[in-house]
Amino acid sequence: MSLHEAVTGCTDAADAGRTQDLDQAAVAQYEWGGVCVVGASGSYDLYSIAPLSEALEAAVKEHSKVVLDASRITFADSTLLNLLILTRRAVDLRVAAPTQQLRRLLDITGVDTLLKVRETVEEAATC
After folding, report:
1. Are 55 and 93 in contact (CB under 8 A)?
2. Quick one: which of 127, 79, 126 has its CA closest to 102?
3. Which residue among 27, 29, 36, 125 is least packed, with the fewest CB closer than 10 Å?
4. Beta strand pairing call for 35-44 and 65-76
5. Which of 96, 104, 101, 103 is nearest to 121 (CA)?
6. Using an 8 Å Cβ cutoff, are 81 and 53 in contact?
7. Dihedral pair phi/psi, residue 42, rounded to 5°
8. What is the pLDDT of residues 9-50, one digit of tens each?
């Protein structure tokens, strides 16, 4: 089972990729200082997690350390938390610059104790 299937419960990316939010999710992947960075923006829930899930799955296959730039995530629910936990099992995952909403979600669920959360992409990439 792929990471995408575990998070969404869907084997067809088109089914999981349907978004019901006006705040469309978007993902960009790049390297910074030799580290893979996945930049996420927008709202993440069951219907919009597919692009991020697929980007993290691809990064896990090619890199031993991955930074999620979470500075532009406007909304996240347990679907994103599940993805982060599953990704952390597969790779050295760092979460950089989480928004206030995401930081609160990580804090109240205790997931911040499982992840390496840093203030900037630079700090996450070098720690």
Report:
1. no
2. 79
3. 29
4. parallel
5. 96
6. no
7. 100, -160
8. 555 544 444 434 447 999 999 999 889 999 999 999 999 999
